[in-house]
Design goal:
Layout: E1 2-7, E2 12-19, E3 24-31, H1 34-46, E4 57-59, H2 65-70, E5 77-79, H3 82-89, H4 100-114, H5 126-159, H6 161-167, H7 177-185, H8 189-192, H9 197-206, H10 213-224, H11 233-267, H12 274-278, H13 285-295, H14 305-312, E6 317-321, E7 324-328, H15 335-351, H16 353-365, H17 369-390, H18 396-399, H19 401-407
Parallel strand pairs: 1-4, 4-5
Antiparallel strand pairs: 1-2, 2-3, 6-7
Amino acid sequence: MIFCGIDWAERHHDVALVDDTGQLLAKRRIGDDAAGYQILLDLLAEHGDTEDNPIPVAIETSRGLLVAVLRTGRRKVFAVNPMAAARYRDRHGVSRKKSDPGDAFVLANILRTDMPMHRPLPADTDLACAIAVLARAQQDATWNRQQMSNQLRSLLREYYPAALEAFAPWQNGLCRPEARELLKLAPTPAQAARPTRAQLRAAFRRAGRSRGIEAEAERLRDVFRADYAHQPPLVEDALGRQMLALLGQLEAACRAADDLAKAVEEVFPQHPDAEILTSFPGLGIQLGARVLVEIGDDRGRFADARGLKAYAGSAPVTRASGKKHYVGRRMVKNDRLNHAGYLWAFASIRASEGAGTHYRRRREHGDWHAQAQRHLFNRMLGQLHHCLKAGELFDEHQAFPSLLEVAA
């Protein structure tokens, strides 16, 4: 057999081909363009690469145009973790020397010696890959929105406590369009005392609000005119300008998160697995899309539910040596799927009687809140694996039969 290793870089890539004895057959440096990709395909074809029997490739990334070119057809592409590749490098020498052609040679030998120990990139459909782009971008935009909101809140604490008190009763606080419109109207405490009721009502209408305007305008007028400590006028004006700059970034983050959420809502229901995912309690369109893209729709990716649970980080890891035995949470995992799992478990506690009973039993057993949530996510993930394999919708009476009897 022939094995290929590619050391990826921004402008060029180093390629190495070895046989099943570890002998270096060819090495080449190619550019990161269409001509370079064609040179790579021609090099693979010269050494026996065919459509029915393609040469497997190891590379340290799972994204990019090079990976997209390699994944055409039935070729297996292995995304090797750079930390794992660094450990393999020490097998070929103790001098700790490093070079790009040498790293390509190491990657090729990883496949030669330990290919069954590594998982190839899943053969997901194009629709699943498109949903993955949108769902991950929406998740990143949501995190970025929260980060900008936290920065704005920290700034307001320095000079504008009335704004924080005014927006405290609202869910999502500074991320709401009403809060952003009011901060534009009154960026400093001195300006906050000037708006009339009519101006406050107009700000609410610009934000798209149509109910409860009169009461909120009256409450905000009282809050803004209350007595607070103030910064010096020049400092307060400067902080107001800084706040408006941060407010512009927050508005862009909110708009991006909303636009991407709409895009996910348009594309995700087209996937065949969407109905199964949204049948689970606590999984809506946005969260279901995040779970789908991290699991994928390649049914052969996980041999059983245990592999999926380990990948998500919900299954515990055991470390045993002699008389020492430790069971703890898994640190190496898919962080995006693990984050979605906590949200899923938290939402399912109220949406499902069986899930809520399971969570309460774990708490009575002595688990902390996060431990009980992780245990519930672990159980729901196993049920999801079964439903996707069998093509069945979630049935709570089959998922939690004994717990439902106890709850009744």
